[in-house]
Each structure stands twice: as structure tokens, then as C-alpha cells.
Design brief:
The structure is a homodimer of 300-residue chains. The first copy, chain A, is of the alpha/beta class and 300 residues long. In chain A, 34% of the residues lie in helices and 22% in strands. In chain A, α5 crosses α7.
Chain lengths: 300, 300
């Protein structure tokens, strides 16, 4: 079968053997953004064309492809959710025999809604490596997730829009004109590599005044010559991640950070600076999670 | 003389008598944004043309007109600052006899820089009404100020970019597509008038998880049908102001809120919901402040 993680800005696919092992992998900068409602089937066959016979294989898709803007909307499954619960809630792909879209998850904290779409698959893929008991996971990103898993179930989670806020500050705010050139996502190579500025941002998050006060301080610091403009991106990254970690990482608990190395490394640094222990995991766990869901559903 | 508050997006002027009393007032939507470096003199004469003889009168200008993007840069004067300190640091207007630009103020809290430009004049104008002793002032806006004044001096202040963050969320974030039409500044009539949603936002600011988590909750709430989209602007306004007030309003201290009624009313509501007492003041105190500075300098 074919396992696919199709997000807003990227497409990743894995060809899986009968035992769930990865036979081949591909990635393309072809997210769902900009794909018209009726064009998903055609775009998918085009993307999979390097793999002979892929057209006839069942596919399991996760990510924003299952959102309102995607191929077909797969309503969120409520927490707590195991692989079996997600498998039971799969949404058939219109017009593609034996293929399904994975639903996202929803939960409520203090009565307030939260949602994820795509990360549930990465989490499920990581579970076998974590073993039984309760674990704290962090999946940083545009909308980063902090999830509690227990004995094979995603129990609850909280989202922080840290990555999105970073991009807004970097490209649209009054800080943008004083920032050096760079990528607006904060995920790339150029930003956040200044360890000292990053650490200063993490520390600043603990001062009085709150986030919106700390953000203005970057502008004031440049105006008064306290802060060099080329240190701002790393400082901003540290400030935002510092606020996120302080608010969402429970003290005294090991945090499993899942994602691309540039980003997990930054979170590991912030967690260490704030006295939290962490372990980093690669984001290829998505393929394992899709295999687990397929197995639970009896696909392939 | 002519007293002028010339900000990024608006121009306000008052014609003052020898005793500092306002003889006439005008306002125009003609901020410094978009005025070329050499064009300020011409634009000012055009704006003042309804007042016969204004061309020959000395003018005192405050606001962003004194920034790097303005007519001439007036370096920030350090806190603590009295009217006399500001008067001593006035910057002559190039090519306009007897006219000056008011410098902004700078200060440091926990060693971190903060700046204001324009608000110092409003604060000075309010001081006579407050009397001696220490007072806490709040001047909400794009970059809202919380200032401590004592016996005629601005002692220190902190800025929160609450208004700017509101605009970014309203117009550029992933919340923007689910928001109803409205002004992006959060200062107008349309937003923030839903008292119950505003109060719910203020209360939400006290929950666990931090601001970037609370912001994502608005999106999740709409996706799951918990929150009606037309209540989001008022909820967002309450959430951001709630975070600001919790972080910056000291408990047990009367807060003097200075600004336009729509905005000061919103802050007074948030302060009351969080158990803080407040008094609202109109923003016309800028004319009084400019008169005080002119008096200290011996102008007019």
C-alpha cells in the first residue's frame, strides 16, 4: 500500500510492504494549497507516477488533505484515541477504491476545543518506541502540539501557534523592517542559529510584562542600539519558544520532541535551558503511524 | 503658537493662546506615512492653510514626526523626565523659525529598552489633573503604554504591542479567514462591542497554556462549532487585553486610562473584570502637554 502525509505545503509518500516496512519514499513541495476541489485525484496520480503500479494500490492519506480545504473532509475523532479508534473513523477517498483519509483528532482542555490533523499519525508511529505508561510529546511547527499519550492512546493535547506567530512577526509586523533577510517560517537554516541570542530570548520569556511587552522590546532594543538587527531572528525564536515551553512543558517530565532536526534541536535547547530533559525523534514516524492505522483497519 | 500631534496615520493641531488655552482645533487623516523626506514643510503649510497667519507662528510638534521616518529625528530623552527635561531636549525644525519637535522618551526595565513617541505629551498634559504623588497610567493603542508618573516626572513605562498583534491576527493570521469583515485595528465601532464575548476572552487569558495556545483555541473553537465566527473579534480583543492587563496592571492600584472612548471603555471593562479600579481620560490632553512643554521652553 501507499502511505501519504499531504499537508498544506508539502507531500510525502512511502511505499509499504505487507509487513508495514518502508520499501520506497518520496517527497515533493506540492502541498494542498492551490489544488482545486476536483483536482486531487489527478495530482495524486501524477505525484505517484514514478512508482509503477501505484495507481492500483490502496492509499492511506493523512494531514490537511482531510480538511475542509482538502480532497474530502474527515471529521475530527475525539480523544482519547487509539489506532483502532482512528481506523474506525477513516473517510473513504471519493473515487479511489480501497483508499482512505485519516481523520484529525479533537480534544477539550478546560472546556476549550483543540484540534490536530496529521500529527496524530506521527504520534501513533512513535508509540511502540515509547512503550507503555504515560508520555509527554512535543511536535513543534507552525501550530505546535504538546500531547499526552498513555498506554497506546492520545489522551489530550494543546496547540501553540508559535511558528505562525514567528512568521507574522518576521514578515508582517513593525519588527519586520528591522529584521535581516531570511525565511519567514523560522524552520530554515538561516534563523535561530545564533545560540547566544536564542538563549537570551528564552531567558527573556521569564521576565515580567508578558509576551506582547517582550515583543515590543525587540523593536525598542534595536532603536536604542542595544540589539544588533542580525541577532533579532534568533532572539525572537528563543523568546517565543521560551514562552511556549514555560507554559506547556510540565516540570520534571521527560519531553519527546518529534520533527525535523533543525526544529527539534532548537526545542531541546530551550527545554534544557529551562531545566527540562528531552529526547529528539525524527519525523519519519508518520509512515509507521499510517502502517499502524492500516493494520488496525485490515488494509493491505 | 501651534501645537501639533503628528503620528503615523493622523494629524491633529491646536491653535493655542498666550495662556496655553485652545483657541481652535483641527484633525486630518494625514499621517507621516507616505510623506517624502523633503515634503514635510509643504504638507504642514497646506494642512495649516485654513488658519490665517499660522505660517508665521511657532509650532511645537510631537509624535512619529520626530522619528527616523519623520521630518527630523529627535533622539529619545531618558526617564525620569519632566516637562523641563523634554523642553531642554527639543529638536529645531529644519527651516521653520522658532519651531521644535518634541523628543520621545526611553527607559529600561530589567535592563531592557523601551521607547515612546507622542504619548509623553499626553501624559504631561494629564499630570496637573492627577496632582502630586505616584500614579499608574495606561495609554492603549497599537503599541500601548503603561507608565508610572511621580511628582511631575515620567519615571518608567512598559509597552505592549497588543493593538498591533490584534491587527496581525485579524488580517494576516490563519484566524483571518474565519473572521467576519471589520476594521483591522480593533479601535473602531464594529469590533469588541459584544460584551459577553469580550468578557469570555478576558477570562480565558487567565487559563493555563499561554497566549499562543489561547490564540489557536479560537481557530479550534470555530472548527468544532463551539464559537460563532461573528463573536471572534470581541473574544480576541478580550483575550489580548486580558493578557496585557494581567501582566502589566499592578494589583490594588488605580489605573488612569487615556485615549479615545471606544478603546478606554474596553480597557476599563477588562480592568474591572480583573478587579482593578480605573478612571478614563480623553486623548485631548496632548494639547495641554504641548502647552506645558512650550511654557517650560519659553515659547510663545
Amino acid at each position: 500500500m501507499i502511505a501519504i502525509d499531504w499537508g498544506l505545503s508539502s507531500f510525502r509518500a512511502w511505499r509499504l510492504g505487507a509487513d508495514g516496512a518502508v520499501i520506497a519514499a518520496m517527497a515533493a513541495p506540492r502541498g494542498i494549497r492551490g489544488i482545486g476541489p476536483g483536482d486531487f485525484a489527478g495530482v495524486l496520480e501524477e505525484l505517484l507516477s514514478p512508482w509503477p503500479g501505484a495507481r492500483e494500490e490502496p492509499a492511506l492519506l493523512c494531514g490537511m488533505v482531510g480538511s475542509r480545504q482538502g480532497w474530502a473532509e474527515a471529521p475530527y475523532a475525539p480523544c482519547p484515541a487509539r489506532a483502532e479508534d482512528i481506523a474506525a473513523a477513516l473517510m473513504p477517498v471519493p473515487g479511489r477504491q480501497g483508499s482512505f483519509i485519516v481523520p484529525g483528532l479533537s480534544c477539550r482542555n478546560d472546556g476549550v476545543a483543540d484540534v490536530m490533523r496529521g500529527e496524530e499519525t506521527q504520534i501513533l508511529g512513535l508509540l511502540p518506541a515509547l512503550g507503555p505508561g504515560a508520555h509527554m510529546l512535543c511536535l513543534p511547527g507552525t501550530h505546535g502540539k504538546w500531547a499526552v499519550v498513555e498506554d497506546g492512546a492520545v489522551v489530550s493535547f494543546r496547540t501553540a501557534m508559535t511558528g505562525e506567530l514567528y512568521g507574522l512577526m518576521r514578515t508582517h509586523s513593525t519588527l519586520a523592517p528591522v529584521m535581516p533577510e531570511g525565511d519567514g517560517e523560522g524552520k530554515g537554516e538561516g534563523d535561530g542559529e545564533d545560540d547566544a541570542a536564542f538563549a537570551a530570548g528564552v531567558a527573556r520569556a521569564g521576565d515580567a510584562g508578558g509576551l506582547t511587552h517582550h515583543l515590543f522590546g525587540l523593536r525598542a532594543g534595536v532603536l536604542l542600539g542595544d540589539v544588533a538587527a542580525d541577532r533579532l531572528p534568533a532572539f525572537l525564536s528563543g523568546l517565543l519558544i521560551g514562552h511556549e515551553v514555560r507554559a506547556l512543558a510540565p516540570e520534571g517530565r521527560l519531553v519527546h520532541v518529534v520533527g525535523a532536526p533543525a526544529l527539534t534541536g532548537r526545542y531541546a535547547r530551550a527545554l534544557a535551558l529551562l531545566g527540562r530533559q528531552s529526547v529528539a525523534h525524527g519525523e519519519e514516524t508518520a509512515a509507521l503511524g499510517l502502517a499502524a492505522i492500516a493494520h488496525a483497519r485490515g488494509i493491505a
